[in-house]
Amino acid sequence: MAILLPSGVKQNIKLAPYTTYKIGGPAKYFCAAKSEDEIAEAVSWARKEGVPYFILGGGSNILVSGRGFDGLVVKIQNTTYNISPYGGSPAGRQHTKIEAEAGIDLPKLVKATIDSGLAGLEWASGIPGTFGGAVRGNAGAFGGEIKDIITSVRFLDENGGIKTIDNKDCNFSYRDSIFKQNPDYIILSATIKLEAGDGKALQKFSKETIEYRASRHPLEYGSCGSVFKAIDVNSMHSEDFEKYPRFRDLIKNDPFPVIPTACFIDEASLKGYTIGGATVSTKHPNFLVNYNNASSQDVSALINFVKLRLTDKFGIIAEEELQYVGF
Ligand SMILES: Cc1cc2nc3c(=O)[nH]c(=O)nc-3n(C[C@H](O)[C@H](O)[C@H](O)COP(=O)(O)OP(=O)(O)OC[C@H]3O[C@@H](n4cnc5c(N)ncnc54)[C@H](O)[C@@H]3O)c2cc1C
């Protein structure tokens, strides 16, 4: 029997253009949801019909299968934000509250806060994707993390109810949150708290950060950024660790020692290692890039190859930061 589609749901939409890898087959159903109501309506339809669904932000942390996704992709496109004074803190500092919907581009939100002379989100300059995706994965860079500025998150729960929880209930940790642990929780919006800062200094920092990223990251190719999370040194056997003085030097004076996976990939001489159209970037070895019309299998085979090599050579288990879709 033909399935009755709600308004706004299209069929057979190619996903590759919606991802930064520029890889992936079609979604059977696709809905660009521009408001909370449209998100809730699309998800409720899928749940009622027993259609699998996937929540898509900016597509900057996913690898979509060449076969596509046999269900509904809900592209989160609610983009309103509001900047309002928060009042003085006990320390006498002025805070500002920003309520932002999940679908706003993170770079746009970062720019808006910097243009308003607000400090606290500038470290995120140059991170692609949506605000909601960044909250879900507790995005971070240069010592900053989303968890440090979130006050509360509003989300759709597994029963279609809307809840708001405070930062302490979000279970944030390194690239993790309660929303990642519960894929049926869909972030609708969140509130962050920033402090008054020096607008000119923030703008300079942001510009330099974006330039630094451009100099270190292979932005000319499709990618999802770093494929693997950093490695917790405590997970390594001490004899493996002792063999590589370079790693010892990296964690000197670090109370929570982690080593960027890029260092292990480099030490394993995997820079430039290629499978089909996917290659380990020579510029930043934790970027496994779409070098030449890579298929999703090329990328996933390369990821698996790198993981095996790192386990063989260093006894470590590299864990993916990216999410697989339709595999
Ligand atoms: C060049 C480059 C540089 C990068 N640098 C960094 C960096 O420095 N630091 C960093 O942390 N990351 C970095 N990333 C990775 C990526 O940008 C972040 O993980 C980003 O926050 C993902 O957001 P997104 O909207 O693109 O999510 P997507 O890729 O669309 O989705 C990722 C996951 O989040 C889920 N999701 C998305 N939106 C929601 C929502 N509203 N509610 C519930 N679940 C949702 C999806 O279902 C999926 O499981 C980089 C990526 C690239 C390509």
Give a written overview of the molecule:
This protein is α+β, with helices and mostly antiparallel strands. The chain has three domains: 68 residues, Uridine Diphospho-n-acetylenolpyruvylglucosamine Reductase, domain 2 (2-Layer Sandwich); 134 residues, Uridine Diphospho-n-acetylenolpyruvylglucosamine Reductase, domain 3 (2-Layer Sandwich); 107 residues, UDP-N-acetylenolpyruvoylglucosamine reductase, C-terminal domain (Uridine Diphospho-n-acetylenolpyruvylglucosamine Reductase, domain 1), CATH 3.90.78. It is 27% helix and 27% strand. Strands 6, 7, 8, 11, 12 and 13 form a six-stranded antiparallel β-sheet that branches. The longest helix has 19 residues. The radius of gyration is 21 Å and the shape is globular. The two termini are 27 Å apart. It binds flavin-adenine dinucleotide (FAD). The site of flavin-adenine dinucleotide (FAD) has 33 residues, from strand 3, helix 3, strand 9 and strand 13. The site of flavin-adenine dinucleotide has 33 residues, from strand 3, helix 3, strand 9 and strand 13.
